[in-house]
Amino acid sequence: MAYQYAIGYFRNFKDNEYESSVEAYYKPMYNQIEFKPGTSLFFNQNLDAAVIQGQGLSYGVEFFLKKKFGSTTGWIGYTWSRTTRQFDELNNGQPFFYRYDRTHDLSIVITQQISKKWSGTVVFVYGTGNAVTLPKGRYAYRVGYDTTSRQPNFLFVDLYDKVNDYRLPDYHRMDISFTYMQKKTAKFESSWNFSVYNIYNRANAYFIYFVPDIQTQTVKAYMVYLFPILPSIAWNFKF
Contact 118/178 with Cβ under 8 angstroms? Predict the structure, then answer.
């Protein structure tokens, strides 16, 4: 259950060529659910007993500006926000940033009509990195001996402290595209689109994993990245 309160101001100006708004919101949430720490979902016949209840809170301010007419159009949107959860059984009962919390969220879209046939679009997005829970330490204990390699076998156990107290690196990227209007009539239109996703090849982190090194007694962290620079060509047909 949740309630959302919002207040905003909206205004168009310069003969409605520009549209602008600012809006603030406040959203308390109740009876939120999470699984208990250490819960295993595999072959669990009593999931109800593995669920805990708590509260949540989300609030922020959104700004928006859009240019609707002319050879150059586009919009800018920015949001500052906070999203937290609080469960008595998690994080020592203290509120923590939820997985959807994103302090800063910026989007910029600019479209330029180059000629009757050609148009171009630039998109830039930026966002605060996701909140994640990472281990504060790791210990190992011997569970056996490998007779083939003549090396002891170890079981590694991660140690955790606070919930979602680490941030992945900020996410940002820029995309560009050009559209060639091949033919447009009252009944149909045909166009080609040439685009490049993530044009400066930003390595945005998707998740982090850890690899122990027995010889050096250390643990190394590695980030997994998705979607590097990616060009594409598409043909669109509408009727």
Answer: yes
In this prediction the pTM is 0.84
How do beta strands 104-113 and 72-86 pair? antiparallel
Structure confidence by residue, pLDDT tens digits, 20-38: 999 999 999 999 988 877 6
Concatenating the DSSP letter of every residue in 67-129 gives: E-SSSEEEEEEEEEEEEEEE-TTSGGG--EE-TT--SEEEEEEEEEE-SSSEEEEEEEEEEPP
Nearest CA to 165 out of 209, 191, 126, 134 is that of 134
Q: How far apart are CA 52 and CA 37, in angstroms?
A: 10
Cα–Cα distances (Å) from 105 to 33, 126, 199, in that order, read 26, 6, 20
Tracing tokens 């007993």 back to the chain, one arrives at: 49
Whose tokens are 């205004």? That residue is: 11
Yes or no: say if 61 and 8 are a contact pair by the CB < 8 Å rule: no
Q: Are 130 and 168 contacting, i.e. CB atoms less than 8 angstroms apart?
A: yes
CA distance 8 to 18: 17
SS3 37: coil
Half-sphere exposure of residue 146: CA atoms within 13 angstroms, side-chain side: 7
What mean pLDDT is predicted for residues 89-107?
Answer: 93
Residue whose entry in the numeric block shows the structure tokens 């168009």: 12
Whether the CB-CB separation of 223 and 238 falls below 8 Å is answered with no
